[in-house]
Write a structure and sequence with these properties.
Helix content is 80%, strand content 0%. It is built from four helices and no strands. The protein is elongated and about 60 Å long.
Length: 138
């Protein structure tokens, strides 16, 4: 395998692993540490946690694709991975901050994270089509 590709895949694995660790830790913190503290903002926290997990799982699948067939994956799949990661930070991160602190200042960041998720899904679909469903040109 190309050393550059190998390094890129390693970054995918490390990024996904770290965000997975945070997803579990943050989810447990919300379920056990915040339940009685943040009151009506708990559903906001749970929404952030759900979207964190959903998009993390997609990043895990993308990482697995790169591990299995790195030479076949379209560039747009890689871009979607990073859009999902950035979307987790902006969307879920801003919801976590609001739920825990009550600060609404990051509220403008939340929809931007959602837009990153949507663009990521579009690019993932395009990339999967290019990588696996389109006829190969010789």
């Amino acid at each position: 395998m190309n050393p550059v590709k190998n390094q890129s895949i390693r970054i995918y694995v490390i990024t996904t692993t770290i965000l997975g660790l945070f997803a579990v830790a943050i989810g447990a913190f919300g379920a056990h540490g915040l339940k009685d503290t943040i009151g009506e903002r708990l559903p906001v926290f749970e929404t952030g946690s759900r979207y964190h997990f959903y998009h993390l799982l997609v990043c895990l699948v993308i990482t697995a694709l790169y591990l299995v067939k790195p030479e076949s994956i379209a560039k747009s799949v890689s871009v979607s991975f990073w859009l999902f990661i950035t979307g987790i930070l902006f969307f879920s991160g801003s919801l976590y901050v609001y739920a825990i602190t009550g600060l609404k200042i990051l509220g403008a960041v939340t929809p931007f994270g959602g837009i990153l998720f949507m663009i990521g899904w579009i690019l993932l679909g395009v990339g999967i089509n290019q990588s696996f469903l389109s006829p190969k040109k010789n």
